[in-house]
């Protein structure tokens, strides 16, 4: 019979949940570095070919690929306003609602902040389990403290409670800070405006195929002049300076006439942020995204400290060498990360 089997199982559970909660941060950093490397490679190739940055396909840009990691492009249309909706004093936009940084579920549906949701759902089990263990431990102390016949038992209760409370407090603080920092990626960068503008264009392009009755001829004429008759997605558009200028003029005419571009769901699509499009992929915007992401991923260092607790408990409970347990944990950690990256790539 293995000694301390309960403590071993608890330590293993905490260790596994800690690794799982860690994965979204690792993948966020991976996505940032990958997109930066691709962007640098594209810049080198384009400079040799004398291609301007604004003439690159959307699907080859840093912002498009990063924003598709930050948001689920297939569901973000729920943040569009209806044409008949009244504008509130707190609204920043005419076409889209303000992004909600405070709630993970909005109107009965998950928030469109995909990385926020991934981290919340990955970290919440660890958060809940740790608090359950702490509460059960306090209940156990309350029940057993009546027997004060042993100073050793009293010291054990005191030290174990302090240790567990410290662990729970650290996890709670870090979990909350990371969630707050993740929301700043969405609130303090241009990612939300950028991806919602592209979603407007994508809806109009795709509905042109399925709903040809909508009178958006001027819009489609502009798009086809620069991207060809067979355009099926916004990802295939090459945004040249002339294209942006024509779409900006179209936006001004729509606003002047109090109109919107017709669509099946009657979203208030006016291409509101098209004037800013040429700035969304510039160096300053990309650096701001990198800075906000790095503010989040620097917490990975703290996670190694968090992992120390269950590794230490596991080595003590199983009477094994700490280094051996740590090496096994690293191997498992690498396998978890590899599997998570493959899973995300297949989604």
Number of helices, where a helix is a run of at least 4 consecutive DSSP H or I residues? 10
The side-by-side strand order for the widest beta sheet comes to 1-2
Which term fits the overall shape?
elongated
Q: How would you sum up the major sheet?
A: 2 strands, antiparallel
Order of helices and strands: HHEEHHHHHHHH
Intertermini distance: 44 Å
Rounded Rg: 26 Å
* Average pLDDT, all residues: 82
Total number of β-strand segments?
Answer: 2
Descriptors:
about 350 residues, 2 domains, mainly alpha, elongated, two-stranded antiparallel ribbon
Report on this structure.
Keywords: Membrane, Transmembrane, Transmembrane helix. The chain crosses the membrane at residues 6-28, 123-143, 163-179, 296-315, 321-342. With 347 residues, the protein is mainly α. The protein has two domains: 5-73 and 112-190 and 286-346, no CATH class; 193-279, no CATH class. It is built from ten helices and two strands. It has helices at residues 5-49, 62-70, 114-144, 151-187, 191-210, 217-227, 241-256, 283-297, 300-317, 322-346, and strands spanning 105-106, 109-110. A two-stranded antiparallel sheet has the order 1-2. A hairpin with a 2-residue loop joins β1 (105-106) and β2. α4 runs antiparallel to α8.
């Amino acid at each position: 019979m293995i000694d301390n089997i309960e403590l071993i199982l608890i330590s293993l559970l905490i260790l596994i949940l800690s690794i799982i909660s860690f994965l979204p941060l690792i993948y966020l950093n991976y996505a940032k570095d990958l997109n930066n490397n691709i962007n640098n490679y594209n810049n080198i190739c384009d400079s040799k070919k004398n291609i301007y940055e604004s003439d690159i396909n959307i699907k080859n840009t840093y912002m498009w690929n990063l924003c598709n990691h930050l948001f689920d492009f297939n569901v973000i249309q729920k943040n569009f306003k209806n044409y008949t909706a009244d504008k509130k004093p707190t609204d920043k936009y005419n076409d889209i609602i303000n992004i909600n940084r405070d709630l993970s579920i909005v109107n009965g549906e998950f928030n469109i902040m995909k990385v926020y949701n991934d981290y919340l759902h990955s970290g919440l089990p660890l958060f809940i389990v740790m608090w359950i263990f702490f509460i059960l431990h306090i209940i156990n102390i309350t029940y057993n403290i009546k027997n004060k016949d042993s100073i050793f038992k009293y010291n054990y209760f005191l030290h174990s409670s302090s240790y567990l409370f410290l662990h729970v407090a650290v996890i709670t603080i870090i979990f909350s800070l990371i969630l707050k920092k993740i929301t700043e990626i969405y609130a303090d960068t241009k990612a939300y405006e950028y991806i919602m503008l592209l979603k407007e264009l994508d809806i109009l392009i795709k509905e042109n195929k399925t709903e040809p009755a909508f009178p958006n001829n001027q819009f489609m004429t502009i798009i086809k002049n620069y991207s060809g008759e067979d355009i099926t997605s916004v990802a295939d558009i090459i945004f040249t300076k002339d294209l942006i200028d024509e779409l900006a003029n179209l936006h001004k005419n729509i606003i002047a006439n109090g109109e919107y571009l017709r669509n099946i769901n009657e979203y208030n699509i006016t291409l509101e942020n098209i004037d800013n499009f040429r700035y969304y992929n510039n160096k300053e915007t990309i650096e701001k995204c990198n800075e906000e992401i790095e503010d989040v991923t620097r917490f990975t260092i703290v996670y190694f400290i968090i992992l120390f607790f269950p590794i230490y408990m596991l080595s003590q409970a199983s009477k094994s060498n700490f280094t051996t347990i740590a090496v096994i944990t690293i191997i498992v950690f690498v396998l978890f990360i590899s599997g998570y990256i493959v899973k995300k790539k297949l989604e």
